[in-house]
From TrEMBL, chain A:
Keywords: Signal. This is Twin-arginine translocation pathway signal. It comes from the Bacteria. It comes from Sulfitobacter delicatus. Residues 1-22 form the signal peptide. It holds the Pfam family DUF1513.
TrEMBL record, chain B:
Its main location: other. The lineage of its organism: Bacteria, Pseudomonadati, Pseudomonadota, Alphaproteobacteria, Rhodobacterales. Keywords: Signal. This is Imelysin-like domain-containing protein. One of its GO terms (cellular component) is cell envelope.
């Protein structure tokens, strides 16, 4: 599509100085929050959880996706969202608005490919209910340039490896915007974990045993050594005590990680976020409903449970993991316990996003 | 909607919450002490005469006192899985019956050591495992020198141990954590508002548990009611548990609020009155459409308590239910 717009965008990219995350103060994390006034904003935090910047958001968001090098974040509207905003974290303003084509909506997560030139987003093809991955070109002002099947229904979080392989959590739950967030296919839902090439070919697809078909695979973390962790949300009765964390390597078999029965039941069938510690020594999942962080060893053995009401955001920290809660707390955790980094008068939203360093 | 959000989530300079102290002094500590005493009495009755006939009365007293604190899902009851170990319900997978029957069938010697018994699956310990031994026809006829007798003694002793630990930990440390919320070195509660939030969450979660689990489970769906999953139906306690739990939650609401809460009081009174009139002790009535409707009416009244508390209690404390727990994705 050699267009005038394309040409101008290319020219602009050459002419403008290239900003980096250092220009935004070197944030370690991004998170959206609700403020005391009821307004929403995106915050940049340093490694100690202290505020570096605050950018107003028009409404409650879901997750943000950080560009690998440029100080840009893509903030998604909550599903079934129709738009996403590219935010300039230096100027503190909206740079682009991604409008999804008719008949689609965003599911709230995205991932950058090709060193940050391409953004991939998880989407719903509303009429067929088929999951889609939307492809957007940053050089063309975040124009939508392609899309392909996600390999399942209800794709939620997606992550990309350095070789641009996409890891997709197809949650399996069909929704339709006309019916709000109602789940339309719980009886026969079949979530999967899919590995896709950057061109959309399915490289591998993992399904859980049939008795766990109602365990929606929704959130993902990638270990430094290539292991994939997926966090699940059980759609059956919350006290069933099913595993909520799966660990997988391409070509391998899934390890389902569980705590003891009482701790497992205390998670109430819900994991909201998943992250590895930066050194890969632990993988954690949070349950805001159960008010718990569960830490596991990468081989699936349970390591520790730490309690904190309404905890959800979780990201790799320099040591251990860093977590956020709905009461404004930011904590660091290793296997020994939680230590407080910061407390602010705001409610941190579902996800804490680490900025690549 | 905007005004409502602002009202329930305001961070304005928090007053010292007198309610926190009152909850501790007039609600929690009397409750944990009563539960410790009742389970100690149950354990010593089991030592004297372990037969089912002798243990049923102290069993009921212990269960009654558990309902006084079972909603306090913060602090000591959350430690070491105690809450579920004391009362493993709802039991979707039928683990209580299977575990209790397995222990009896195998005559598992684990009952000989309290330390070893504390490691038994939480489904095989606590009030609902003991209920099988004391009230299930094919198990309750055991004699004083039987394995079941030793199992009843082990469960009763284990309950008394956990109840004593809960009482001691509340008195020795957790009450102080709530009181010193926001002080340096308090790693549980980073502000007074967090302490108030934790107690308010216990109130709301407790009301939800009564509505959705104690009443909602046996109600099942209109097409498929499930009377047999009612809590503690073998000991005939299902409705009694609802009433006693509501009374305990009313006490929590009254002590937590610093000012009159007429709507919440009226909502509690209406639900308790309806529960008293229900005359359906184990919710067997849900099997018929008219009987199910009556239980559903009670459930509606319980839900209305939570709405009243959200209006009358939450704004004063500057709290709401969790931002993430109430609305995830």
């Amino acid at each position: 599509m050699p267009s005038r717009r394309h040409f101008l965008a290319g020219l602009a990219a050459v002419a403008l100085p290239r900003l980096s995350w250092a220009d935004a103060g070197n944030p370690a994390f991004l998170s959206a929050a609700r403020e005391p006034s009821g307004a929403y904003a995106l915050f940049g935090l340093d490694a100690e959880g202290q505020d570096l910047f605050r950018i107003p958001l028009p409404d409650r968001g879901h997750a943000a996706t950080a560009h690998p090098t440029a100080p840009e974040a893509v903030a998604f509207a909550r599903r079934p969202g129709r738009f996403a905003l590219v935010i300039d974290c230096v100027a503190g303003r909206v740079k682009h608005r991604l409008d999804i084509p008719a008949g689609r909506h965003f599911y709230g997560h995205g991932a950058f490919l090709q060193g940050g030139e391409i953004l991939a987003t998880s989407e719903n093809d509303i009429e067929s209910g088929e999951g889609r991955i939307g492809i957007w070109s940053r050089a063309e002002g975040y124009a939508r340039i392609a899309e392909f099947a996600s390999g399942g229904i209800g794709p939620h979080e997606i992550r990309a490896w350095a070789d641009d392989t996409l890891v997709v959590a197809n949650g399996g739950i069909r929704t339709h915007p006309d019916r709000g967030r109602e789940k339309l296919n719980l009886a026969d839902m079949r979530p999967n974990l899919s590995y896709l090439s950057a061109a959309g070919e399915v490289l591998e697809r993992i399904e859980l045993p049939s008795d766990l078909h109602q365990n929606s695979i929704r959130h993902l973390a990638l270990a430094p050594d290539g292991q994939v962790a997926f966090a699940m949300q059980w759609q059956g009765t919350p006290d069933a005590g099913v595993p909520l964390l799966g660990l997988h390597r391409p070509g391998g078999t899934v390890v389902l990680a569980e705590a003891d029965l009482a701790e497992q039941m205390a998670m109430e069938g819900y994991a909201g976020s998943v992250a590895y510690a930066a050194d890969g020594q632990y993988v954690g999942i949070t349950s805001p409903r159960g008010g718990r962080l569960h830490l596991f060893h990468p081989d699936g053995r349970f390591a520790a449970s730490h309690r904190r009401a309404d905890v959800c955001g979780l990201a790799p920290g320099a040591r251990g993991v860093v977590l956020t809660d709905g009461m404004g707390g930011v904590f660091r955790s290793g296997s020994a316990g939680l230590s407080r980094l910061a407390l602010a008068e705001r409610a941190w939203d579902n996800h804490l996003v680490a900025i690549p360093s | 909607m905007r005004a409502f959000l602002a009202a329930t989530f305001c961070f304005a300079a928090a007053p010292a919450f007198a309610g926190i102290d009152e909850v501790i002094e007039s609600h929690v500590l009397p409750g944990t002490e009563a539960f410790a005493e009742a389970t100690t009495a149950l354990a010593s009755a089991a030592t004297d005469d372990c037969t089912a006939q002798n243990l049923r009365d102290p069993y009921h007293t212990a269960f009654d006192s558990w309902l006084g604190i079972s909603h306090l899902r913060l602090g000591p009851i959350e430690e070491e899985g105690r809450g579920l170990a004391i009362s493993f319900w709802p039991d979707t997978r039928g683990l209580v019956g299977r575990t209790a029957a397995g222990l009896v069938a195998d005559e598992d010697p684990v009952v000989e050591s309290p330390e070893a018994f504390a490691e038994v699956s939480i489904a095989g310990r606590g009030l609902l495992a003991l209920e099988r031994l004391l009230f299930e026809d094919d198990l309750a006829g055991y004699s004083a020198d039987s394995y079941s007798c030793a199992l009843a003694q082990a469960i009763a002793g284990d309950l008394a141990r956990m109840a004593g630990e809960i009482d001691r930990e509340w008195q020795d440390s957790f009450a102080a954590s709530l009181r010193s919320a926001g002080a340096g070195g308090n790693s549980f509660f980073l502000s007074e508002r967090e302490a108030a939030q934790a107690l308010y969450t216990a109130l709301v979660t407790g009301l939800d548990f009564v509505a959705d689990q104690r009443l909602g489970r046996p109600m099942g769906t209109f097409e498929a009611p499930k009377p047999l999953v009612a809590e503690a139906r073998r000991s005939g306690r299902s409705l009694r548990n609802v009433g006693m739990s509501l009374e305990a939650l009313r006490e929590l609401a009254q002590t937590l609020a610093d000012h009159p809460i007429p709507e919440t009081e009226a909502a509690f009174a209406a639900a308790l009155e309806r529960a008293e009139q229900l005359d359906d002790p184990v919710f067997a009535g849900v099997a018929s459409p008219s009987g199910r409707l009556r239980v559903e009416a009670l459930r509606t009244l319980v839900s209305e308590i939570a709405s009243a508390a959200a209006k009358e209690i939450a704004p004063e404390l500057g709290v709401s239910v969790g931002f993430n727990s109430a609305d995830g994705d």
